[in-house]
Amino acid sequence: MKHKVSGLFYKELFDNMVDGLVYCQMVFDLRGNPFDFICLKINKNFEKITGLKKVIGKKATELIPEIKTSNHELIDICGQVSLTGESKSFEIYIKPLSRWFFISAYSPQKNFFVAIFQNITNRKKIEKDLENANTAALNVFEDLQAEKEALARAKAKDEALLESIGEGVVATDIFVSNDGKAHLNLITCGGFLDEVSKSYPKRLVVFADAE
C-alpha cells in the first residue's frame, strides 16, 4: 500500500534543512544566454546562510548588484542546469557577501532550478591556515637544509686545507703593527724540505690578534 506524502511534509522538510534552499526561474537574453535569475521560493535558513534579505521575487542582480562582474559563473552554471537538466555541484567564493559556498543545483523543469547552499567559509579559512602553516614549515626546513649544506661545505673546505698542509712545521712570531696592536704571525709549512732552497713547497701564513 502506497503512502501519500503531503505537500506540508515537503514544506516542513525544506524549512528545517540545515542548508539554505532557493527555487529560481532563469532569465535569458535575446540570444538565449543565461542573463539573470529570479528567486521564487526559499527555506528558512537561506537568508541566514547567505546574509541576503527580502529575497523572494527579486532578481540576483537586485540582491547582489556586482554579481555579473564578481561571480558571473554562478549565473552561467545555474543557467546550464536549468537548460540541460544536468545537476551540478561546485564551490564558489561570492566576494560581495565575503562567503564561500558549496552549491548543489538541479532542475525540476526546464528554465527553473533549485540550489542548495552550504556556507563553507570556516572550512576554507581552516584550509588556508593549514596551507600557510605547511608553507612556513617548508620554509623553515629549507632554511635548515641550506644552513646544514653551508656547514658541510665549510667543514669540507677545512678538511681539504688540513690535508693540503700535510706534514710540516709550524713557526710563530709576535709582532706589533702600525695600529699599536700585537699580532700573532702563524706560518704553516707543508710537504718535504727542499735541501737546495731550504724551503717547503707549501706555505700558509695566518695573521691574528694576539690577545
CATH topology annotation of the largest domain: Beta-Lactamase
Strand content: 25-35%
Number of E-type strands: 8
What is the element string, with H for helices and E for strands? HEEHHHHEEEHEEE
What's the structural domain tally?
A: 2
Overall mean pLDDT: 79
Q: How do the strands line up in the largest sheet?
A: 2-1-5-4-3
Q: How would you portray this structure in words?
A:
The chain is of the alpha+beta class. It has 2 domains: 7-124, Beta-Lactamase; 159-211, Complement Module, domain 1 (Ribbon). 39% of the residues lie in helices and 31% in strands. It is built from 6 helices and 8 strands; from the N terminus they run H-E-E-H-H-H-H-E-E-E-H-E-E-E. It has helices at residues 7-15, 44-50, 60-63, 67-70, 72-84, 121-165, and strands at 20-28, 34-42, 88-94, 99-106, 112-119, 170-176, 182-190, 202-209. The strands form 2 sheets. A 5-stranded antiparallel beta sheet has the order 2-1-5-4-3. A 3-stranded antiparallel beta sheet has the order 6-7-8, with no helix packed on it. The longest helix is centred in the last third of the chain and has 45 residues, at 121-165. It is elongated, with a radius of gyration of 39 Å. The N and C termini lie far apart (105 Å). Residues 167-176 have low confidence and may be disordered.
